[in-house]
Predict the 3D structure of the following.
Amino acid sequence: MTRWKISAFFAFFGILLNFFALPAAAAPLVVRLSISPLAATVPTGATQQFNVSVNGTTNRKVIWSVNGVEGGSPETGTISINGLYTAPASVPAAPTVFVKATSRANRAVSATATVTIQNPLTVAVAPPVVNLTLGAAQQFTATVAGSKNQTVVWKVNNVAGGSAQTGTISAAGLYTAPNAMPPNAIVTVSATSVVDNSTQGAATVNLFNPSTGPNAVRFLNQTTFGATPALKNHVEKIGFDAFLNEQFALPESPYQPTLTATRQEVVDRFWVNLFKGQDQLRQRTVYALSQLWVESFNKNTEPDMMLPWLKILSRNAFGNYRTLMREITIDASMGHYLDLVNSSKPSGTQGANENYARELMQLFTLGLYKLNMDGSYQLDANNQPIPVYTQTDVRQLSLALTGWTYPTPPGQTPGPTNGNYYPGPMEPRQNNHDTTAKTILGQSLPASQTIQQDLDGALDIVFNHPNVAPFVATRLIRAFVTSNPSPAYIERIATVFENNGAGVRGDLKAVIRAILLDPEARDDNPPPGFGRLRSPVQHTIAFFRAVGADFNEPLLFAYVYRDMGESVLDAPTVFGHYSPLYRLPNGSGQFGPEFQIFTPTEAVNRANFIYQTMNENWLSISEFTNLAGNPTALIDAIDQRFLGGRMTPAMRDSIARALPSAQDNRSKAIAAIYLVVTSGDFIVQK
Amino acid sequence: MNQHSISRRNFLGMTAGFGALAALGNLSALTANAQTAGDYKALVCVFLFGGNDGHNTVVPLAGGEYTAYQSLRGGLALPPNQLLAINAGGTQYGLHYGLPELQTLYTQGRAAIVANVGNLVRPTTRADLSQVPNQLFSHSDQVAQVQSGAPDGSLGTGWGGRLADLMQTVNTNPDFPPSISFNGTAVFATGAQIQAASLQPGNLLSQYAMNVYPPEHGAARQQAQVEIVNNLSSFDLVNAANRVTGNAVNLNGILQSAGSGGITTQFPATTIGNQLKEVARVLSIRSTVGMRRQVFFCGLGGFDTHSGQSYAQWSLLQSLSQALGAFYAATQELGIADRVTTFTASDFGRTLQPNNSGTDHGWGSHQFVLGGAVQGGAIYGTFPSMTISAPHFMDSRGVLVPSVSLAQYGATLANWFGVADAQLDAVFPALQNFGVRNLGFLA
């Protein structure tokens, strides 16, 4: 028996009750009740008004009940004294319930309606987000809840069946991406229930160009320290997504033991890891994080004051931002660098050290001004940006972080405060911790907490501030993809930072994946503001990787980067080598952080260094020299290798004119490579 | 609406019409200074990165004040016998013992001190801190604000660069950068119109790749590079990068012709010594390259002495003093000591009360002005008394509320440089909030 038949049966039964009530109340007046509607289907949580008409008595009052319980219950649904029925939050074990009105004048007389409770009508489309290459197909499924009728109408960007421009979809939900990129690379696939055409579910399709040719090169230049022929072949074969999965799974390139390496060895290892670590994406992330959570040999002069920090960045590159915050905050290397170590509760004329508290908020997590999710400033009534924290917040946070001292060296006795010793996290000294109540960013920490409670409480307050997601999203997009992301791009990434899809906030792996697979990153026809200037380290390493250079000896040339504005691991201040807010020196207002260290001086120093390396025995350009007898073949090969095959005709012509036939083939190759590698087309990753 | 936003808006409104202002600047400069072939002026900013501790740079020696200083400074107080005595209007002060060259120049009347100067929105005391610059204690903000000359630091240009903008038409060579930083790219030197350059001591921007045999092959490469950087790309960042390389090629030609400048003064081989030596070299070719107004920026870092201040500040001030002494001598040698004015600036001052072995971020601080045009041997502004409850201290940690604004300090320098009074508000948006527009330390 179907549900509908049950309802019909009981509806009929309700009429019978009324009928039999007649003779029981024969004198002086016959009380009669009728209820409407007699049957109803109500979605969970929804309401249904029942009306009752009372005849044969002046007492028109009735008692409403559900399954015999006056007023109903949360399990079966409730009913008000005016007959408004509210269905329960979930479908009960017996989905049909009885709403009964009983006459107060004569409690033997009642009328009953049946209510069938069912889930509301919804349509869910799976999978909810798909990254799809042009021309590829994807099967979607629609699940209709709240109706037996599972039939849906499939649409693409609200057009039934889709279109050639945005992709087509079959009646069975098979979506086929268009062959050419539509104006908007983000397409919406929806399924509408035929039961109610206002009810639909939707999925997002991010359309990608095929992971081949220039698109593979662009992707690799964003995810690694420079595309190589081997990696290009690999990405063309396995695709973007699988490449990221491979990279996420690779083991970390190692650093030296903390206590035995020299400073030069640390700098060399850092550089070599960036240059040829197999875990290129992790290295790219470590490099980005090293410019966000800055420490520097400038103040942390010894290797054991820098290695712990590098290891934390590497270990947490694909981890959670909150974990990274905690590990760095209490690491002795950062404790030394920004003076949190031995910062004690106020005593006499001595206050808590405010340096770390301020930079934690300003540089590592929040920035200066309140942000919207798309990275734009919130503005006050006078159109001014709104500071995100006050000096009071800095002081309160600095109090919450008091009481940490250097680790106790092996074999020594812990002191009230320890002397300088760097490997490992700082140690808590409750006696030096300020135990007053604090208010940070409008959130309270109660008095008398332990040092660890205040640490975690304070870090939670900062980590959960709404600025963190757009702040970190913007920084990382600039580090990987473009100096001038659209607000929508920032918001998409900030949204992933807030929730990785499994309810986790601050999942860096999810954030990095989203940044690199975002349609704006994968756009094959990007807007004029797209791209980012390669830093000196990135520029030179991209060149070395492209020509297949290799090193078997310590490099000992990391010092040359000082003259390019980027002393490796030796930033002049906690703001790093360049400001993330630096704008292009052309008055356009566009961002170009790396341009702060790219003036004529640094441009020439980069070029001269690259030129000199072409004469080193660890770098061979013979494959290009061998082609140089034919300038066109030479230029083609250089175009493919360094510019992904996108050299402009004008640049081709200029290079060809710079290769006088009297020149030997090696000089021709050097000249052509030099002109390309020092041009804006190579220096800008785009 | 507060004054802060008024001044910012006025400023932004004025920048929109900067071309007209620049033209006006040229006209009035010509009238005011009756241009001659010998007309030349340069401003040299020496930025003390990290926030120099002014409390130990200039110390009051008069009885009660020194005692108060000593008790508030605790372990960081400098003993009287380590201070280099100077006289200001009959009152004794002491310079940090790392500053003997500056003591000499002060005594000779070639150096002055501007007391308790800092970044201000309007005249301010502890009683009313409702309108103060944004993010007072943040390095990056205060560096940006002090260098941009705007209390909210939101301008993309610096006041040195804007002065160069206003005076640029006085220069006869449009290709030589009128604003040069020897300390990497600096907001201070960045103008709205002029192209600021960053140069390194001893680097003439020659590309090795162009220096090949035979020379025609190098010339062909150079020609190709110029063509490539002049091609317009569809990517803005590519164009911006190519423009930098194009400027490098132009500057290389100019610098190669400069020579050594014929300066015999020995400079200390320090960070700041090398930078000021290079400024002197560029000064030596001022006529050759057709420059009459030039702005220079030099920098010395490490003043953020949260700990270990005693040694660190001594080492830095010594390096500063030696370099400034050599630089003044070099300008004498070039015969332009009265045409070159050098001044210090910093992120901010530091707390009078120490933390442990260092000091934390403050606000107002003392600065030096140096040159033949300086009315030296004097302290300008109001030297703060060492009374922690006085209204010039912001709080119990001894953060100084500046009594002289950066805008007044800069406007005095700008006025000497040749910028007419009417144009100063465009360079210093907060200046309109202050009555005194020239502090009088320059003749």
